[in-house]
Amino acid sequence: MKSYDLIVIGGGSAGYAGARTAKELGKSAAVIDGAQDLGGLCILRGCMPSKTLLYSAEILHLSQNANTFGLDIKGAQVNFTALHDRKKKIIGEFQQYRTSQLEDGRFDLYRSKATFSGDKQITLDDGTHLTAKKFLIATGSKVSKPPIPGIDEIPTLTSDEILDLDRQLESVIVLGGGVVGCELAQFLKRTGTRTTLIQRSSRVLKSYSLEASSAIEKAITEEGIQLHTDTQNLRLKSVPGGCVATFQQSGEIKSVNASYVLNALGRTANTNSLNLATIGVECWESGQIIANAYQQTSQPNIYAAGDCCGPHEIVHTAILQAECAVKHAFGVTTCPMDYDTLLQVVFTDPQVASVGLSEKTLKERGVPHIAESYPFNDHGKSILMNALHGYVKVIAHAETGKLLGAECVGKDAGEIIHAMSVAVSLKASVHDLIKTHWYHPTLSEIWTYPLEELAEQIKL
Predict the structure, then answer these.
(1) Domain shared by 247 and 313, yes or no
(2) Fewer Cβ atoms within 10 A, N terminus or C terminus of the chain?
(3) What is the pLDDT of residues 178-197, one digit of tens each?
(4) pTM attached to this predicted model
(5) Distance CA 177, CA 234 (A)
(6) Are 8 and 132 contained in the same domain?
(7) Crossing angle for the helix pair 210-222 and 179-190, to the nearest 10 degrees
C-alpha cells in the first residue's frame, strides 16, 4: 500500500495549487482525479469558456451598434461554428497546459475516483488503497437540480451545455438571476436568442448592492431581455416546440414560452461519493464541507478548498485556500483566510466588481464609515466610449480615511477595480490615493472623484 505526505482529491485549480505547494515544501504528494478530462471547472466549463464567449458577444454588440460611434458596419452577425471552434481552441490550450503540469512528475497522478475508507486511507475505483498523513479535498461542484414542478419533463439546459453550443437557439427561459444567469442571459440575447430571465427574489444579483442590481437590470432590459423578478410558484410544462413557464408575479398568473429552459439556479458541492460522514467530516446542509479559517475540517488531518467548501466559489480564492491549507497542514506559518478583502467580479456588460466590505456589513459591525460615488455618464473616457451605465463607489473609515471597500459597475469594472483591491489589501487611505497619479483620460481616473470627496470630509 503506497503512502504519501499529502493526497489531493481533485485536479482543478485548488487541487493543483495544493499539490504544487506540498512539493515546494519538500513533501510527497499524489493527485486523484477521475474526471473524463483533466483541467477542472474553471478551464473546462467555467471561467475560461464563458468569458471567451462573453467577449465575442460584446464585440458583436458593439459592431451592431457601430453607428453610435460614427461607423458603418454592415452584416455583423454571429457564426456559431466559428465561435464554438475558437472557444474549443482556446480552452484546449489551457487544458493542455494544466494537464502537462499534473503529469510532469512532481507528484503522482491517479486517473480514478476515490472514496475515504478511513480517515487516513482512500480507495480508488480499481480497489487500490492509498494512505497519507494529510488530505486535501478539492472536488469542486456540479450543477444542482432545483425542485421545480415539471423540470424533468421539459428540454432543460445547464450552463455546461450552453457553453458548448455550436448552434443558435430560437428562445430560452433563464431560471435564476445570479451571476451565471445574468451573464449567460446577456450572451444568449446578444447572439440572437429571444431571452427571458425569471428570478424568484425581488432583484437580480441579490448578493450585491441594490445600486448594482438596479444598474444591471436597467442595462439588460434595455437590450431586450424580458426580466421577471419577485416571482413565486414557478411551474414548467412541456408543449409542442418547447416549454412554458407559469409563475405568479404581483398577484397575477403569468406564463412565458420558449424552446428551452436554462437552469442557472446554482451549483452544489461535489462531495456525495467521498463517504465523508463515515469518517467524521462534517458538512453543511448544502453539502459543502465545514472548514475553519485554515481550511481544516472536523477531521484534523483532512482539509478542503474551493467550491466543495465555499464560502465563495471563486478561482483565485480557491487557490489561496489550498495554499493556506497545505502550509497549515505541514506546520508552516501562514495567515488564516481573510474575506474582508474579498474581490468579486460579474462579467455582464456593464461589469460588476467589488472589493472589501460593503456598507451593509459595516453597519452590522458598527464600523464608522462614509461612502461617496460617481457616475460613468459624467466621466470623460466613459462618455467617449458610450459606456454610460454604472458608477464607482468608495467606502472609507469615517475617522482614519482607511479604505474599507469599493464597488464599480461599468465598462471593464473587473479591470479597474484592482486599483482599489490593492488599496484595501494594503490598508491605504483616501489621502494616500489622492497623491497617486491617475492618467487622463482613462476609465480608472474616475476613482479620483469619490476619493477627493472623501478626503475633504475626513480631516486628519
Answers:
(1) no
(2) N
(3) 999 999 999 999 999 999 99
(4) 0.95
(5) 14
(6) yes
(7) 20
* One domain, residues 281 and 233: no
Given a contact cutoff of 8 angstroms between Cβ atoms, the answer to whether 192 and 219 are in contact is no
Cα four-point dihedral sign 266, 230, 355, 349: positive
Tens digits of per-residue pLDDT, 251-275? 999 999 999 999 999 899 999 999 9
* Number of domains comprising the chain: 3
Contact yes or no for 53/348 (Cβ under 8 A): no
Residue 459 β-bridge partners: none
Identify whether residues 360 and 311 lie together within a single domain.
no
Residue 53: which CATH number?
3.50.50.60
Domain C-terminal end among 215, 231, 265: 265
| Whole-number pLDDT of residue 459 | 84
Per-residue pLDDT tens over the stretch 403-428: 999 999 999 999 999 999 999 999 99
Is the C-alpha dihedral spanning 231, 47, 291, 289 positive or negative?
positive
Question: How, if at all, do strands 242-249 and 231-239 pair?
Answer: antiparallel
pLDDT one-digit tens code per residue, 331-386:
999 999 999 999 999 999 999 999 999 999 999 999 999 999 999 999 999 999 99
- pLDDT value at residue 460: 76
Domain containing residue 80 = 2-143+268-337
d(C-alpha 455, C-alpha 460), whole Å: 9
Those residues whose C-beta lies under 8 Å from the C-beta of residue 75, and which sit 6 or more positions away, are none
